[in-house]
Design brief:
The structure holds two protein chains of two kinds.
Chain A lengths: L1 H20 L7 E8 L2 E8 L8 E8 L7 E2 L10 E3 L10 E10 L2 E7 L2 E2 H4 L2 E2 L3 E6 L4 E6 L16 E8 L5 E4 L11 E5 L7 E9 L12 E4 L4 H33 L15 H8 L40 E2 L5 E2 L15 H10 L6 H9 L6 H22 L7 E3 L2 E3 L16 H4 L2 H7 L10 H4 L18 H6 L16 E3 L3 E3 L1
Parallel strand pairs in A: 1-9
Antiparallel strand pairs in A: 1-2, 2-5, 3-4, 3-6, 6-7, 6-8, 10-11, 11-14, 12-13, 12-15, 15-16, 17-18, 19-20, 21-22
Helix pairs in contact in A: 5-7
Chain B lengths: L5 H26 L6 H18 L29 H19 L10 H29 L4 H35 L4 H27 L1
The chains are: A alpha+beta, B mainly alpha.
Chain lengths: ~500, ~210
């Protein structure tokens, strides 16, 4: 009995002291309970700034169980003004009574107490961190959480969910979006706010919306002005940046190679193996098409010459000067064609052939000449010339035109084919405008006698030997035909004035 | 609670009666017939009562800490082992009617927010009516069952239910006795207020458990 009385007295005495201490209560500081990253954090702020403690100690008790104050070990003699009680206050059904005592040195300055029923008196969740990325017509909101398993939050009990508040500055309209969070609400997620209008300033705020609307703790607004065409500009700028970067990389690489080559650190080969001869490879893969040949009508200017009768004199004056190139008044060089014999590359001339032709009583008609020219070796007397004709082009014309860069000739059967560089010879295209300005005219006019042409109107049509009209291609006439052609021409100047050249596919130019 | 100005109180009562009617009609109109939504309603109304208790006064006066008492809330009745839904309804009904009897007394502190107190009384009253209606409907449904099985099942059910209700009654009797012993002091009411918040929250969690089934 006496013991019981003693206990009662002791009990009263203890509470008496506590009662005295309680007089300090909340006049000196403000206690606040918040959830920071889903952690129960008790924070306090001293109201009287003139008295600022340097250290704090935290105790607590609960109403449902009368007990003494319990010291929080992790928050004993601390300098910070908050304490994480997640692992201490685990029962959300109790009403906790914290007590914060502030010291400076050994002197107690403040003594603050409060009460918290965690379900209703706290739970002011700090808003999560978030970022916004603005586009032309939508905003992407990236919400970040710290991967902390909430002990207090129970998805079904507390039912916290996110609410985005978008405020349009222009209209003051507030729209609220509540994304459905699948899984834990502590996981990061993105939310896109669509159907926005460019050129309007939008502000975004993210916060947890508790069951008690008065407990909302909104985050600071993040505003952005949607630019029209911003999304395309961003992609274009990214493309341009990528191109510039690539260009810089290539330039640096090339300059490095060049520097190394110049200083001799590396030697670049110029003679590549055949397999690396990409030029030829490309030429093989993509064969160059033969250059287009301009086909044009060429006018033959006939120059009538008197038939010179051989007086059986071997005048050396009638030498082979015809073959010598003669310079025209216009500076052009004329070359003649002379058929050659089978053994001689130069002796055979068209003169011989022409002489042979003159022995014939009857000259074939131009048409016949044409036929003869067309037909391979129709006449016996043509054989020699024909055979020699193979070599005519090889020397005379080749010598004459080699300087001009004509391509080597080639023979094909009974015809002589010359490849003539058009730039090196004179060609007159039949045109009304060219009648007076033809370059050929001075040349031909200066050598009227040397032009050998068969007489007669029909013979004037020996232009059949020349490419007349578009597309007309005649093979190079056989030497016999060639010989036939200047039927009345003396041997000395049968063909000097004429340099009938077969160009490739049978064009003959003068 | 003693009042000096009866006229003012009458005016306030008239206004409160209007609010009561409106609130009553609101709740009755929505939940009068559909007992399948009982759990949803219980969850919502209990949470509202909890908030009202919190707002009724400021923070717990620390000077009353010395008078705190352990009322020993019977947690076993809120376990997940309750097999029948009727037992849950009866437990809710017992809790609601006992709490209503406590808050219907006119001995509240003047420092409390009267508006919140009135709303709490209305909420508890509506909760009781809803539960009564659903319990009557369930009683009528049980009359269609076979008598033998009904007798056996009813006997076992009533035993468990009676025990649970008895524990709840004892719990609320302790609270009521505490108030009387403390002569409805300010600290006594504050302590009771804190304790009933704890009780409401337990029943709130109980409805969450039931919603998973």
């Amino acid at each position: 009995m006496s013991k019981a009385k003693w206990n009662t007295a002791h009990f009263s005495l203890v509470f008496g002291i506590s009662y005295i201490l309680h007089d300090f209560s909340n006049e000196y500081c403000t206690l606040k309970m918040t959830l920071q990253n889903f952690r129960s954090v008790l924070s306090w702020e001293v109201r009287n700034h003139s008295v600022v403690p340097t250290h704090y100690t935290l105790w607590y008790t609960i109403i449902s169980k009368p007990q003494n104050m319990t010291l929080v070990k992790d928050c004993t003699n601390i300098t910070r003004s908050f304490c994480d009680l997640t692992d201490v206050w685990g029962n959300v059904t109790d009403t906790y009574i914290p007590r914060v005592v502030g010291f400076r040195g050994g002197t107690q300055l403040v003594n603050c107490m409060g009460s918290f029923f965690l379900e209703t008196d706290t739970m002011s969740l700090d808003p999560p961190e978030f970022e916004i990325v603005d586009f032309t017509d939508h905003i992407n909101v990236k919400v970040k959480f710290q991967s902390v398993a909430p002990k207090i939050l129970d998805g079904e009990e507390l039912q916290f969910y996110l609410a985005h508040v978008i405020e349009e500055q222009s209209g003051g309209i507030v729209k609220k979006y509540k994304p459905e969070v699948n899984g834990n609400i502590t996981e990061n997620f993105n939310y896109v706010i669509n159907k926005l209008i460019p050129n309007i300033n939008y502000c975004v705020s993210v916060y947890f919306e508790p069951k008690d609307p008065e407990k909302i703790n909104r985050s600071p607004l993040k505003c952005t002005l949607l630019q029209p065409g911003q999304e395309s500009e961003s992609s274009e700028s990214a493309t341009i940046g990528g191109i510039i970067t690539l260009f810089l990389i290539v330039a640096v690489f090339i300059s490095t190679i060049m520097i190394l080559k110049r200083i001799g650190y590396i030697c670049l080969r110029n003679d590549f193996p055949k397999v690396l001869d990409f030029y030829k490879l490309s030429a093989w893969v993509f064969p160059e098409l033969p250059p287009l040949e301009k086909v044009a009508t060429v006018e033959i200017i006939h120059v009538n010459r008197k038939k010179k009768v051989w007086d059986y004199s071997y005048d050396e004056s009638d030498s082979d000067d015809e073959t010598a190139p003669q310079v025209s008044a216009g500076g052009y060089t004329m070359h003649g064609l002379r058929p050659l014999g089978p053994t001689s590359t130069s002796s055979a001339t068209l003169e011989d052939c022409s002489d042979q032709a003159t022995e014939e009583p009857d000259l074939p008609e131009p048409e016949a000449v044409t036929e003869a020219a067309m037909a391979p070796g129709p006449s016996p007397w043509q054989s020699e010339c024909t055979s020699g004709a193979h070599e005519v082009s090889g020397d005379l014309l080749q010598d004459a035109l080699s300087e001009e860069g004509s391509s080597p000739t080639e023979d094909s059967g009974d015809r002589i084919i010359f490849n003539v560089d058009l730039n090196s010879v004179l060609v007159r295209v039949l045109d009304d405008e060219d009648d007076d300005n033809s370059e050929v005219t001075p040349m031909l006019s200066s050598l009227p006698e040397e032009a050998v042409m068969p007489e007669g109107p029909a013979e004037t049509d020996s232009s059949l030997l020349v490419a007349r009209g578009e597309g007309t291609q005649l093979p190079f006439p056989s030497p016999s035909a060639e010989c036939l052609w200047p039927e009345d021409a003396p041997s000395d100047h049968s063909d000097t004035s004429e340099s009938d050249v077969d160009i490739g596919d049978g064009y003959i130019m003068r | 609670m003693a009042t000096d100005d009866d006229d003012d109180d009458d005016d306030d009562d008239n206004d409160d009666d209007d609010d009561t009617c409106l609130v009553g009609l609101f709740f009755t109109g929505i939940f009068s017939l559909d007992c399948t939504l009982l759990n949803v309603y219980q969850r919502r109304v209990i949470w509202q009562n909890l908030r009202l208790l919190s707002r009724m006064s400021n923070s717990f006066p620390t000077e009353c800490l010395s008078e705190s008492k352990a009322f020993e809330l019977p947690l076993e009745i809120l376990s997940d082992a309750q097999p029948l839904k009727r037992d849950i309804k009866e437990a809710f009904y017992e809790m609601a009617i006992q709490a209503f009897n406590i808050f219907i007394q006119d001995t509240f502190q003047s420092t409390w927010e009267e508006k919140h107190l009135r709303q709490l009384q209305i909420g508890l009253d509506e909760q009781l009516r809803y539960l009564e209606q659903c319990l009557e409907e369930e009683e009528e449904e049980n009359e269609d069952m076979k008598e033998m099985e009904e007798e056996e099942r009813k006997h076992s059910r009533d035993t468990v239910s009676q025990l649970s209700n008895l524990e709840l009654r004892r719990y609320f009797n302790r609270i009521d006795k505490f108030l009387k012993d403390k002569k409805y002091s300010h600290c006594a009411w504050e302590i009771v207020r804190a304790e009933l918040k704890r009780c409401f929250y337990f029943f709130y969690k109980f409805t969450a458990l039931l919603s998973r089934k």
